[in-house]
């Protein structure tokens, strides 16, 4: 019998495939160094590195700047405030952080980059200049921060996350990075993550596009813009953070709130829709084939970073690079996830019977018909039910969470938020299921059920041929 640790250990062929992939990326991307890690089943199962310096490859303790992955950390802080009841995602920013020129934007819009704000702060380029040039939020936003109507389109905005960092500071009454350390980093054991580098750390470089020569990149303190991309971290810390993003930790944020963050919240642009790209609440969502990969990428002068997570496969990958460009960082992260997921598919948990079952709910399982379309209702291990079309690739499948009093609430798809209820006759027997006014019956167009529009008294018939 294998132990869980044995099940998580990667096979030699898989480890070599991962090493080969990062070696190609470092060589073709011409980056001074590249370090990576893969987590599976809640633990780090592989690390690898490539470098241009012989005998000096970085390990999982070396810090790199992670750019916009910082945004996911900030989003976790905001969701904690939501879960504590300190704010609603539908609140306008003005309610909690008055006096900005973006006060009409809601918290959700800022998290999802749909507030219509500009992508960058006014010149000069904030990533290559001291944050002291923008001491106030007004300096970050500029005179005309709104480019689009709020809520209408996805438009990535770094100033938007500056506002979220300021929101955290306003409600916690202390700097956002101190809040982050106390509420997220320390509980999760991310001791090598923070706003400033702590040795050992990798220096950032620019690589000439047409010659194999280097130019050191200056590291700036981003000041007010720090919540958009200031953090430094390691592959070990980010791999642990990826495990948290997949499974949750009640000391920090619940699995349900993290699932909400991973759910698309922004209307995609046509090009993004075609490429399978979306955005949730502080998390990027991409489809590589049929595999959904969530997480975030980051880039600041001298550094590239990526965190990629497939929840379905329970595989996460982290890649850190110390060059301004050259490595297709999102593709690389997704490839590391794919290599593990395809070479060593996730071993499912053993099937186990439910510990208990409500007889009345059990009696509802089996086939139901919406008109002539066949569906099947099943119990789910979490105490809810699912309603799935019997036809392959049929529409409107959904899971439902028990809402009490014999009702369930839809969790996804067409029926998200809708109520499913068993309607009973005066004698207690079930007449039909009601789902958002749709009537589901045990036989197609059951004449004994209140089918909208009624059922023809002649019943089902064939088509007589004349002649």
Average residue-wise pLDDT? 94
Number-wise, the strands total: 19
Distance between the termini: 72 Å
Classify the beta-strand content into a percent band.
Answer: 15-25%
Widest sheet: strand order?
Answer: 12-13-14-15-16-17-18-19
Helix-strand category: alpha+beta
Number of helices: 13
Helix content class: 25-40%
Global geometry:
globular
What is the alpha-carbon Rg in Å?
26 Å
Main sheet characteristics: 8 strands, antiparallel
Q: Which consecutive residue ranges, at least 5 long each, have pLDDT under 50?
A: 1-5
Oligomer: single chain
Any overview of this molecule?
- The protein has 467 residues and is of the alpha+beta class.
- Helices cover 27% and strands 22% of the residues.
- The protein is built from 13 helices and 19 strands.
- The chain has helices at 4-8, 12-29, 69-83, 93-96, 107-112, 137-141, 158-172, 176-188, 235-247, 255-261, 270-275, 329-343, 359-362; strands at residues 33-40, 43-51, 64-65, 205-207, 214-216, 232-233, 277-279, 284-288, 291-300, 303-310, 315-321, 366-370, 373-379, 385-389, 398-404, 407-410, 419-424, 430-435, 438-440.
- The strands form 4 sheets. The chain has an 8-stranded antiparallel sheet, with no helix packed on it.
- A hairpin with a 2-residue loop joins strand 15 (398-404) and strand 16.
- Helix 2 (12-29) runs antiparallel to helix 12 (329-343) and helix 3 (69-83) packs across helix 7.
